[in-house]
Amino acid sequence: QLQLVESGGGLVQPGGSLRLSCAASGFTLDYYAIGWFRQAPGKEREGVSCIGSSTGSTYYADSVKGRFTISRDNAKNTVYLQMNSPKPEDTTVYYCAAVRTLPFRLCVLPALVTDWGQGTQVTVSS
């Protein structure tokens, strides 16, 4: 069974740091672009950051640029999202997804994703 499992969420203070993990099972992430998405209540799901399969090219939403860093460890079949200096407006559930496409395209077109996991809750609060 192909599955992506998000973890690492929790409560973090503004200006702190948190690392989210997206672990794959049942398939290898090597040939997929991987994206992190979030959906605040009443808003559409948005691509936060995506990373390409081979070149490792990355895409970041303007709202997180300079604060979040996406990386992948193909040996561990895992993708990470390092969240530095999070803000209260970053509070929501974060999801990861894998699609065979370009990272930019994945992030701007969440509709390309056909299966979503449970996500991991991130709460930024003092």
Keywords:
126 residues, 4-stranded antiparallel β-sheet, single chain, 6-stranded mixed β-sheet, 1 helix, globular, mainly beta
Description:
By secondary structure, the protein is mainly β. The chain is built from 1 helix and 10 strands; from the N terminus they run βββββββββαβ. The chain has one helix spanning 103-108, and strands at residues 3-7, 10-12, 17-25, 33-39, 46-51, 58-60, 68-73, 78-84, 92-99, 120-124. The strands form 2 sheets. Strands 2-10-9-4-5-6 form a 6-stranded mixed beta sheet. Strands 1-3-8-7 form a 4-stranded antiparallel beta sheet, with no helix packed on it. A hairpin with a 4-residue loop joins β7 (68-73) and β8. The chain is globular. The mean pLDDT is 94.
Chart the SSEs and their pairings.
Elements: E1 3-7, E2 10-12, E3 17-25, E4 33-39, E5 46-51, E6 58-60, E7 68-73, E8 78-84, E9 92-99, H1 103-108, E10 120-124
Parallel strand pairs: 2-10
Antiparallel strand pairs: 1-3, 3-8, 4-5, 4-9, 5-6, 7-8, 9-10
H/E topology pattern? EEEEEEEEEHE
Indicate the low-confidence ranges by residue numbers.
Answer: none
Task: Choose one word for the global shape.
Answer: globular
Q: Briefly note the structural class of the backbone.
A: mainly beta
What strand line-up does the widest sheet have? 2-10-9-4-5-6
Write down the Rg.
Answer: 13 Å
Percentage of residues in strands:
over 45%
Distance between the termini: 39 Å
- Biggest sheet descriptor: 6 strands, mixed
